[in-house]
Fold:
Amino acid sequence: MIAIATVSAYKEDDGVLVLTKETFDEAIAEFPDILVEFYAPWCGHCKALAPEYVKAAKSLADEQSPLRLAKVDATEESELAEKYEVRGYPTIKFFHDSKPSEYRGGRTSSEIVNWLKKRTGPAAPQLSNVESVKSLTEKEDVVVVGFFKDQSSAEAKAFMEVAGEMDDIVFGITSEAAVFTEYKVTKDSVVLFKNFDEGRADLSEVTDAKAVKEFISANRLALVTEFTQEAASKIFGGDVKNHLLLFINKKADDFQDKYDTFKKVAPKHKGKILFIYINLDEEDNLRILEFFGIKVADCPTYRYIQLGEDMMKYKPDTSDVTEQALTSFLDSILDGTRQPHLNSEEVPDDWDSKPVKVLVGKNFDEIARDKSKNVFVEFYAPWCGHCKQLAPTWDQLGEKFKDSPDVVIAKMDATANELADLKIQGFPTLKLFPKDSDKAVDYNGERTLEAFVKFVESNGKEGGEVTEEEVEDVEEPEEPEEEKPHEEL
Structure:
């Protein structure tokens, strides 16, 4: 009854407290542990978070938890946004005893709830009987339970360390003999319960925290996982950085046959390679095709990707989804005989018909690395506003040097063409490949015709610096709004 009376003091939206300048301080004082989202009504990421946030609030309410979720429209409550240094949307802060800290958890309802529980209680709650384990495993897709007769042991402490670090999985711990017997555990172990594939996985040799984390990473996902926004954080945030991706239409008549074949190859690589299928029925997934340079007509097909500082992509010789083809493809990558695949457009017939030459992956080395010439290249993106603004000046630069025997002005669409030794991070990126040199020189100066000419004629030695007075006028690389992972700093 007290909780009901307390809640009535605040406006609610589907179980989420709606706070304003008048009610904010009262709420964070009244609720010892409260999560607050500062949002903007127009923000796409805030809209995507909203249903998960509501589900999290409902889940906590169903459990009669004292934990609360709230939100603040930062565009209306500008004083609160300024006070709590809101620089992007959504900004989420956790208030414990009225003291704010940054929320570092995920954006699904289960991740939000798990993060809150671990910040306000034990990382792995005590499971005192068989019923408590069954209740937990029936409720969650994945649950990790530590079976330790002595919870002060080094192994149990290693387990609890991992439980405290992994916010997106539910943990529990038990020492009860009846629970050991029910689940046929005969020695200290870690058991991962899941409602898919084989149902559970056991780690009977708990050596240290690293071993526990590796065990969980290897077993928490299904043998084959469908790529969804909810699964994305588990796929990309996990320790397994090698992924085999199957691009396929889930409504296709042969989907199940190809899925079964794909799944048949997976067990051999469990814990080392994630097997993921991407449903082409989902419009948002078509952007992933673009990243790999794949057309819908080419599907079903597959690619292999190694995530890391230098991301590598591999393309098979055939798109046949057979056990032999998939196995052969993976073997060629793992034994080092297959080289990474680089996207490239075909060389246009008129690539050199204008003063600004058009480069693609297939003719880049021949033109840009020609040591008999100074080659100044703009790496651009078709959607980039700053690249569009630069285009007239770049065309003027091409016109200036069109008759020069040792200067080439060029451009390359870096979203459709890739280079093995150059990773373009922003647009536009400008690089000079000087005559008689193996090294490229970055241009970071004013984007004016005069500055460009000076830079080229000095062989990249003059005019490329940004003075203190010029810094504020230099435009930063632009990305489309939907390309940003979060609308936040």
Notes: The chain has four domains: 2-120, 130-219, 224-334, 356-473. Residues 1-7, 466-489 have pLDDT under 50 and may be disordered. The domain at 130-219 is CATH 3.40.30.10 (Glutaredoxin).
